[in-house]
Design a protein that fits this description.
The chain is built from 7 helices and 14 strands. The chain is an alpha+beta fold and 302 residues long. The protein folds into 2 domains: 2-58; 70-279, Nucleotidyltransferase, domain 5 (2-Layer Sandwich). β7 (70-76) and β8 (80-84) form a beta hairpin. 27% of the residues are buried. The structure holds zinc ion (ZN).
Length: 302
């Protein structure tokens, strides 16, 4: 069951109760108090697993962004997410393996109850529920990981007053979609999508400028002289021209940082204030309206 509700007209909050048009009263069990100071907008009432859930839209003013003093680059691969620049470098494992564990449990259970004549697992509610539980668990692991990791990255950038440069992952996701779909590929796609989303979200929340950069060749050209790098042992690369030897992830981070700095015009030593429109393609920052509310349009909340 889903119901759209308009504030004051079809629902209102009164003390510990939500009153819904038609004389229904629902006791509030709990809610996220962090947004209490913002007025209530439209709401959606849902009934799920024996509970009513009321989702209220809020208009929260956008945090204005600072002028970055440098760039924190983010590079992702299947196993790790590496973030840093010429000075710092951090790495965190992805949650793929942990999530994969639950996908495999779901699959095992499904196979165990699948027979050629009829699929018993389909008919048994309990088993179906457990299979669903494992799939959801896998997705939640990825979501939690993306949320947590992106917050850590955004907070680090804010501490140093840096902008975040992240690769535009769209092309990578498209390429993954062409592969034969298995659980691992699906989890990779989910991870990249969630990570991109949550990095942008955390940056928006904390006022960290974000710069999407072209992902091409970030781990195959020299960050010093742009020559094509040659393999030099396990995950290590060497520049035939300037002699730079570094591991693949380090190279990627340096290249992404370099591209970010170029886009910010910081590389030439002149601290030009970045112009907003080229810095983000996700949430266009309107010039002259730094604290424009981020909610949906219209003035129905006044
Ligand atoms: Zn070089």
């Amino acid at each position: 069951m889903r119901l759209w509700l308009t504030p004051k007209l079809s629902y209102r909050i009164k003390g510990n109760y939500v009153e819904v048009l038609g004389g229904y009263r629902l006791r509030i069990v709990g809610w996220d108090r962090r947004y209490d100071q913002y007025p209530n907008g439209e709401a959606r009432l849902m009934y799920k697993d024996g509970k009513f859930l009321l989702m209220i839209f809020k208009r929260v003013p956008r945090t204005s962004k600072y002028t970055p003093k440098g760039v924190l680059a983010v590079d992702v691969n299947e196993k790790e997410i590496v973030f840093g620049n010429g000075v710092v470098r951090e790495r965190r494992e992805t949650a793929i393996e942990r999530a994969l564990h639950y996908k495999k449990l779901a699959e095992k259970l499904q196979q165990k109850y699948s027979f050629s004549k009829y699929n018993a697992w389909r008919r048994r509610k309990g088993i179906l529920r457990r299979i669903g539980h494992f799939h959801r668990k896998a997705c939640n692991i990825i979501e939690d990981w993306a949320k947590k990791t992106s917050l850590e990255i955004a907070e680090l950038a804010k501490r140093h007053q840096h902008a975040i440069a992240r690769e535009d992952l769209t092309g990578l996701i498209e390429k993954l979609r062409e592969l034969p779909g298995d659980h691992k590929v699906a989890l990779l796609i989910l991870s990249y999508r969630k990570l991109a989303f949550w990095i942008d979200w955390q940056c928006e929340k904390l006022g960290v400028p974000i710069i999407p950069v072209e992902p091409e060749h970030t781990s195959s050209i020299c960050p010093n002289c742009s020559s094509r790098l040659k393999g030099n042992g396990y995950r290590r690369l060497k520049c035939p021209r300037c002699g730079l030897v570094e591991d693949r992830d380090r190279i990627a981070v340096l290249n992404i940082e370099k591209r970010g700095l170029e886009l910010l015009n910081l590389s030439g030593g002149s601290l030009t204030a970045p112009t907003a429109p080229q810095m983000t393609d996700v949430t266009p920052n309107r010039c002259g309206e730094p604290s424009r509310p981020s909610g949906r349009g219209g003035g129905q909340f006044q």
